[in-house]
Specification:
By secondary structure, the chain is mostly beta strands. Helices cover 0% and strands 40% of the residues. The site of FE2/S2 (inorganic) cluster (FES) has 10 residues, from loops.
């Protein structure tokens, strides 16, 4: 599995998603609760960027209709979204945040 640099750890503010594009895949990188997560940036309900939503309790909320997705599993907590959003493995090396979009967790 190929890890590529998504951004610098020092650029990430807590609970403020950062949208990056890795190998053509839009990814939202989120630092929260002392960990860094990578989740596909597109809501599973419609074509909406999750990085524009809010982060709370390890969930990212879709701003359009309010479904929240677990940053660890990608599963939605409630309607209208019913399908999970892919999440990706993250590695931290020094100040580099590395993400593998070739493997979903
Ligand atoms: S577009 Fe995300 S919940 Fe509807």
């Amino acid at each position: 599995m190929a890890f590529v640099k998504a951004c610098a750890l020092s650029e990430l503010e807590d609970d403020t998603p950062k949208r990056v594009e890795l190998d053509g895949t839009p990814v939202s990188v989120v630092r929260t609760e002392g960990e860094v997560f990578a989740i596909n940036d597109i809501c599973s309900h419609a074509n909406v960027s999750l990085s524009e939503g809010e982060v709370e309790d390890c969930m990212i909320e879709c701003w359009l209709h309010g479904s929240s997705f677990d940053l660890r599993t990608g599963k939605p907590s409630g309607l209208p979204a019913t399908r999970p959003v892919p999440v990706y493995p993250v590695k931290i090396e020094g100040d580099d945040v590395l993400v593998s979009v070739t493997q979903e967790t």
